[in-house]
Design goal:
- The complex is a heterodimer of chains A (275) and B (290).
- With 275 residues, chain A is mostly helical.
- Chain A has 13 helices and no strands.
- In chain A, helix 11 packs antiparallel against helix 12.
- With 290 residues, chain B is mostly helical.
- Chain B has one domain: MetI-like fold, CATH 1.10.3720.
- In chain B, strands 1-2 form a two-stranded antiparallel ribbon.
- In chain B, helix 3 packs across helix 11, helix 4 crosses helix 7 and helix 9 runs antiparallel to helix 12.
- The radius of gyration of chain B is 23 Å and the shape is globular.
- Classes of the chains: A mainly alpha (275), B mainly alpha (290).
- Chains A and B meet through helix 1, helix 3, helix 4, helix 5 and helix 6 of A and helix 1, helix 3, helix 4, helix 5 and helix 6 of B.
Amino acid sequence: MVTKKNSTIRHFGLLGFAAIMIFPFIFMVSTALKPQAQIFDIPPSLIPSDATFQNFQDLLRIDGFGIYFFNSFFVATITTLGTLAISSSMAYAFARLKFPAKGFLYTLVLAGMMVPPVMLIIPQFLMSKYLGLLNTHLALILVYICMTIPMQTFLLRGFFEDIPRELEEAAVLDGASKVRIFRVVMLPLVKPGLAVVTIFTFLYSWDEFPWANVAVNEESLRTLPIALAFFQSQHLTQWGMVFAGAIFAVVPVVLLFSFFQKYFIAGIASSGLKG
Amino acid sequence: MQVLFFLLPGFLVLATFLILPMGYSLYISFFDWNIVDPDISKFVGFGNYTEILSDTIFQKAALNTAIYALVTVPGQIALGLALAIALNGALRGKGLYRTLFYLPVVTPWVVVALLFEYIFVGQGGLANYILVDLLRIASEPIRWLADPVLAFVPIHLLGIWKGVGWVGVIALAGLQVIPRDLYESAALDGVSNWQKFRFITLPLFRPTLVFLTVVLSIGAMNAYVSNQLITNGGDPQDQTHFILTYMYEKTFSGLEFGPGAAISYLLAMVVFMVSVVQLRLLRRESALGW
């Protein structure tokens, strides 16, 4: 029973909790707007007395953060397109087509979900070195696609299986090929699933640090997380600029999350995906 | 033939970067691997494994990782469950709360790690200001990051803070599966709130709890970015490593690929065992009708 008193208490608790969760973000924005002279002021001010966008301008003009933003965006976008294409094709085949060794192949894909990514980073490095992919965005894109397809194939397979078979059979009678049925009939029907795949893959590639840190050395090819970590280790006290850079990394995430929240929550709750 | 169109691209990628690498990594872990000229690598059998297991820095790293899991997994679950219970049922502004709590989950690890480092940095950070000047709990500023034990305070806090929203969403989904009429008939019998939680919520919530424990434990064992950024992986004096920061340092700074591969296999085995044991537990419990 939800009584009025009960819900007031809940709001109090939740608001307090929310304040703690959000506070670090407020502090981050406030720091990004501070001139360097105020960074270590005691007491630390939450609302800077002379707020400035200097940090953002310097980052873009002097430190070339525009490039890193573009790199991250490029890698995350191509990865997402690749994962969408590959995982939806595989999911459709495993849901609807008959072929030899199907069970074995599907187990192989699912096993990919169990392998801790760490275990793979050394051989992936050596493999990329052997293929001449080190220091290219392709090394990032291919590994990110590889790491996301098992989970996303599993997720989409469920969506394909929920589609009534009659829809497909009508198309078969019309003489359409499997490829055409997949593209024209089936794909539009799993749009909510594709939305979930898009969000998770994009966020994963946008966030990923360990692999990008070893696969790409060339400064101009760095993604945002790597650039941020390097920037901080070279400018130990320039926290205002560090967090201005951090805001470049956070804004797309917040936008994506706010626009697709519905799919997002549904995706997490139904499959246990970890965002 | 049409099947190839659907499967070939995916399996090419998986074979190159997942299936082959798994075997390759095992192979490397038995060699004193020479990165420049792999052909002259020397076979050492289980040498890398015995070397790693008797390495005191690795032992410390394993202990640190275990403590991190023991602190952050229950921490996230307790707070996330409390959050889910508060959000369960009709409540105005539910969507807004969910967004606020979920924000840390989607924010990149690098960003939040730098944020927590800044809060605890040096002597003039925000944490010291709050403890010393505002609450007057500490008499003088604490140098968190220079201390091999206290350096874990921001790392553990970050681990919990970042995961609570995710646990909340999963837990909320788990709670909503529990039939409402159970609570209603319990209310008719005059059962207290605590008893409802203890005898209805907890048993029916158990599968979700096991799932959360598995996923969060695996995540904790794989923790890397927060430690790497906040302690530089190991500072001070290699005392604060996690298994992974040590694996990275050995492999990519020390170029000891053999021992690095051995560490990653050891960790993978533990991760695998944890998931098998916990999934077994779950299956046995559902057989008992919990």
